[in-house]
Amino acid sequence: MRGGMKTTLAGLALLLAAGPMGAQDYPVEPPKADQAPPPPIGLALPEDYLAPPVDLVTPLAILDRLVVPGTRMQLEWRPGGGISAAEIPSPVVVTRGALSGPVLCLVAGVHGDEINGVEIVRQLSHGIDPTRLSGTVIGVPIVNVHGYSRGTRYLPDRRDLNRYFPGSRSGSIASRIANAFFQDIVSHCDMLVDFHTGSFERSNLPQVRADLTRPDVLEFSRHFGNTVVLHSPGNKGMLRVAATAVGVPAVTFEAGAPARLEPEEIAQAVAAIERLMVQTGMREDPTAADDATAEIDPEVVARRPDPAPIFLDSRWVRANSGGLLISEVTLGQRVQSGQRLGRVIDPVANVERYILAPVPGRVIGMALNQAVLPGYAAFHLGTETSEQQAVQEAVTPQDGEGPEPDPESRPSELAEPSDREDYE
């Protein structure tokens, strides 16, 4: 019995001695800090093992509807108070991205006869894939349904809607419509582009007009690819001026002439906005896959947009006599001082008088061939400069900052554009 007990005790001692070594699941040498094993399954992971948090995208509440992430919805906007009860509603296309990002508002048709912008916003609003969008695009192709349905720039009372933002609830019809649009749409925007064309039978080279004295607007204006940027402080009552004043960086995008659809100008504007969305992180760059071969593929290099030229100083060249205007230059053309821009023919006296460029520059706006009176603004010339010089000149007070807004008792169409800026 004692012998068996001794054997059992000896075996137990051996098991106890070997136990720790058999249960050990790591080397005798403790691991170094940079070679730590992964934590056991089922235990909470340290921060180093956690994936970065993903921003939760919630539905957007707008115009009494909810637009869920990854979808597009077409809504209707009507100013309150029965202002437009007898008119067709203004369409509002909301594309809510599946990923988080800023809210970009694209607005057109503030002037009812400027239909290039209507088509630009329509194409962009319905051409964006919401499942691959970071942020939201709110497209309003026709703000002034009154003017659009009648083919005119103005509201029924002949007021210019783009002189009454942000508006008021108790003012004229223009003020009330402007106020309702500001509260219902602009209040949702993080940045805004307002599309226009030349006015009164004039055409504009595709261009961005921005107040470069505002740092947020200056930064915003850098994202439109190789589109021309013109410093323009704007006038009181303009949509972009009112939006910027409440912290929404806004610019005006001019493209073409009123009362007609111009495919080339429309395509340039659409490309500029697509570039804007890439630059602001709302969309992936479709040319990103070409970056690896960009250094050896000349076609890829050729597709890259050049830095945006900025036209700080601009002036209108006016006709000094009445008659029939015939242009001899085209939009975007560079001209020298003294070069002939066009001629005015007096059909009664059979006399031709030439319009000459007073300074070198580039034609960024021009009147279409038509009958003109003395003093008619015929050609808009812009002088190219660097961004640094543009900002420096923009913050320097200058004479003639543009016309004061017209009083409510006088139709806006009676006002004459200044030498520094035409109508927006």
TrEMBL record:
UniProt keyword list: Hydrolase, Metal-binding, Signal, Zinc
Signal peptide range: 1-23
CDD domains noted in UniProt: M14_ASTE_ASPA-like
Occurrences of domain Succinylglutamate desuccinylase/Aspartoacylase catalytic (ranges): 101-277
Residue ranges, annotated region (Disordered): 385-424
Coiled-coil residue windows: none
Any one GO molecular function term: metal ion binding
Cofactor(s) needed for function: Zn(2+)
Ranges of Basic and acidic residues composition bias in the record: 407-424
PANTHER family cross-referenced by the UniProt entry: BLL3975 PROTEIN, SUCCINYLGLUTAMATE DESUCCINYLASE_ASPARTOACYLASE FAMILY PROTEIN
Name the UniProt record assigns to this protein: Succinylglutamate desuccinylase/Aspartoacylase catalytic domain-containing protein
Organism field: Arenimonas donghaensis DSM 18148 = HO3-R19
